Amino acid sequence: MSRSIFVRGALPSAVGLMLVAAPHVLSIVQTRMLTEIAYFALFAVSYNFLFGWAGLLSFGHAAYFGLGAYVTAISLKHVAGLHLLAGMGLGTLAAAFGGIVIGFFCVRRKGSYFALLTLAFNQFLWAIAWKWREVTGGDDGIGGIIPKKPVDLGFFHLDLGSITNKYYFTMSIVVICLAIGWYLLRTPFGNTIQAVKVNEERAAFIGYNVNRSKLIIFTLAALYAGIAGSLFALFQDFVATSAIGLGMSTEVLFMAFLGGTGSYFGPILGAAIFVYFTDWISSMTEHWEFFLGVLFIVLVLYFHQGFIGLIPSKLRAVFRAEE
Predict the structure, then answer these.
(1) How far apart are CA 230 and CA 251, in angstroms?
(2) Cα(219)–Cα(225) distance, integer angstroms
(3) 303 DSSP 8-state letter
(4) Calpha distance 242→245 (Å, rounded)
(5) Do the beta carbons of residue 234 and residue 72 sit within 8 Å?
(6) 224 closest CA partner among 193, 189, 178
(7) H or E stretch including 226?
């Protein structure tokens, strides 16, 4: 079997079958964890659009995750009769709009100025979520988001009270988004982003609009983070300020670096490791952040490619050929 056929056929089919069968062979706790990994993987990939592909180190990516979660929760909670998908769509659009507005100011800055400006906007939105208690619930958050009755999706009715249904719903959206992102990064637009990352001056000299390209990838990253935030709100059936806080921005950075920012699949692996590791270590000690920090330090010092760099080189070569 050639390497190309293996990548394009056998391997994706095997992964797809495992994902379909997962709720039938895993426990409820493991299915919940796999669902959590799915939306955090989408969040980590959205962060990698900025850092891995455009070279933009953001300290405030939770702003768009939180916007997606909050707007989805508020719209489904307070707009009578609003369809589930419409609520998710509003959350996603709010995150994308936030990406356009914030990105307009940020992409004109470089290095530490860009990073600190994204952090400032993140904290500004966090303060709104904290202080605007009448709408956001403040530190009490918003609960009871999921519709009580099964949702009509045309071909069938979806009851999100079931963890199995939540898993399939979340995984379907995440897989579709990841496939679209994979395709977009391999279009001429993706090549433009890579050129801007390597050398902005040279890219501008040969005719690329650098700021516009950076704003588009910034908005795309915000849109993907908003979808992940909407899925987070539906899965947790609760949203609080932690969804838009600095801690969430730090966690997504951890996920991307743990897996490896030089690969499309690295942040997905990083999200899985982060969720499993934090669940495992927190079950043994309340000082789990210390061990997470140690892991991160070791990774940065000795494994610059992240955990995906530990995969045998022959297997990584298969993926690189396709990337």
Answers:
(1) 17
(2) 10
(3) -
(4) 5
(5) yes
(6) 178
(7) helix 210-236
Centre a 10 Å sphere on the Cβ of residue 2 and count the other Cβ atoms it contains.
8
> For strand 151-152 and strand 157-158, is the pairing parallel, antiparallel, or unpaired?
antiparallel
Predicted TM-score (pTM) of this structure: 0.92
What letter represents residue 92's amino acid? Answer: T
| DSSP designation for 132 | -
Mind listing the pLDDT tens digit of every residue in the chain (323 residues)? 555 555 566 777 888 889 999 999 999 999 999 999 999 999 999 999 999 999 999 999 999 999 999 999 999 988 888 899 999 999 999 999 999 999 999 998 888 899 999 999 999 999 999 999 999 988 899 998 888 788 887 777 888 888 999 999 999 999 999 999 999 988 988 888 988 888 888 888 888 889 999 999 999 999 999 999 999 999 999 999 999 999 999 999 999 988 888 888 899 999 999 999 999 988 888 888 888 888 888 887 887 788 887 776 666 655 554 44
* Residue whose token pair is 């899985």: 272
What backbone torsions phi and psi does residue 2 show, to the nearest 5 degrees?
A: -70, 160
Give the Cα separation of 253 and 62 in Å (integer). 10
**What span, in angstroms and rounded, lies between the C-alpha atoms of 26 and 128?**
40
Residues 229, 68 contacting (CB under 8 angstroms): yes
Residue 123 main-chain phi, psi, to 5 deg: -70, -30
> Which one-letter DSSP state was computed for residue 311?
S
Tokens, residue 305 = 């490619």
Which are the contacts of 211, defined by CB distance < 8 A and separation ≥ 6? 107, 108
For 57, the 3-state DSSP assignment is: coil
**Residues whose CB is less than 8 angstroms from the CB of residue 54 and which lie 6 or more positions away in sequence, other chains included:** 193, 196, 197, 214, 217, 218
Q: 97 burial class (0-12, 13-18, 19+ CB within 10 angstroms)?
A: middle
The set of residues, in sequence order, having a beta carbon less than 8 Å from that of 32 and lying 6+ positions away, is 163
| Residue 57 to residue 40: CA distance in whole angstroms | 18
Residue 53: DSSP 8-state: I
